[in-house]
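HUMAN:
Sorry, I am quite new to this. Are you able to go through these amino acid letters and fold codes? The numbers rather puzzle me.
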Amino acid sequence: MLPRGVAIEQIRILLVDLSRLVGEMVERAVASQGDMVVVGRPTTVGELVQRAGETEPDVVIAGFHDSRLPAAYLELLLEHPRMKVLGLQEHEGQAWLYELRPEQIEIGEVSPDDVVHTIREAAQRSLPR
């Protein structure tokens, strides 16, 4: 329990590209939480970029057609690496969470063969699936 007078830092959320019904449902769910607040509902990508710069959201909740992250959202994650994007596919009831996450893989002592092997493994990870 927090000491009296200590403010809870709120999780800032932007909603974008959601249908009116789903947007209102998410807003009601967020409003019922004491530690969350919707800081905007931009209607265009340009407005999203501007609002993200102004409000520094922790999470952007967006309507997606499938699991692929649209380029505009990738650019947004690159500009705001601590932010997360929660993509909701409204018709299928699916969701995906996207974030930038550096990954460190320890290789240990390195020989030329180890370097070549590591390059191949890294390239395989970045190939389209």
